[in-house]
Design brief:
The chain contains eight helices and no strands. It is mainly α. The longest helix has 41 residues, at 85-125. Residues 1-15 have low confidence and may be disordered.
Length: 181
């Protein structure tokens, strides 16, 4: 496993972030951000096109590793209904375009940014107490091996009962910050 990662890293060093890759990354992330903002969904064809571009513009193992890591991180969240399917597919497509190293950097930025935005929204709405209670419920439920959405349907992003964050917008902003760094 470590040898595969070393080989991928050596291969990625030769793959500079070219203008074409940057264009594809920006097109995918901004398209997803706009669509998620307006429709609260990210279309399959956009994510599929992004993933295909990742495999066309990169070495196959490089793109597959980035896509695979994104899926490994996001699929458990999807199974727990903590994130939507469009978010999973968007991050997988970006993984194929960016590869492991750059995707991890962008993922870290998007995670921090998403937390800051979510905290801001919670504070603006005056829902800090309720959010802390729900967070504790999630932690204790997972500790008991129970999916939190089973007891509290508002924790299931697919029901529309809870408040969700348009993750595509956060990812688009994170991509711009990633490019700046």
């Amino acid at each position: 496993m470590f040898r595969l990662l070393d080989d991928l890293e050596r291969g990625a060093q030769g793959l500079e972030i070219t203008g074409l890759r940057i264009g594809a990354i920006l097109l995918l992330s901004f398209g997803a951000g706009l669509w998620d903002w307006r429709e609260r969904r990210i279309p399959n064809r956009l994510c599929l096109g992004g993933a295909m571009a990742g495999f066309l513009l990169n070495d196959w193992p490089f793109a597959a590793a980035g896509l695979g890591l994104a899926l490994a991180i996001h699929l458990p969240l999807f199974v727990l209904r903590a994130t939507g399917g469009g978010d999973v597919k968007l991050m997988a497509a970006l993984g194929a375009l960016m590869g492991i190293d750059q995707w991890l950097r962008m993922f870290l930025i998007s995670s921090i940014l998403g937390g800051v935005v979510a905290l801001g929204l919670v504070l603006i709405r005056g829902a800090l107490g309720e959010t802390l209670k729900r967070s504790w419920f999630v932690v204790t439920s997972l500790g008991r091996g129970i999916a939190p959405y089973i007891a509290k349907p508002e924790l299931d992003v697919t029901t529309g009962l809870g408040r969700t964050l348009p993750r595509g917008v956060v990812v688009a902003i994170a991509v711009v910050l990633w490019l700046g760094l």
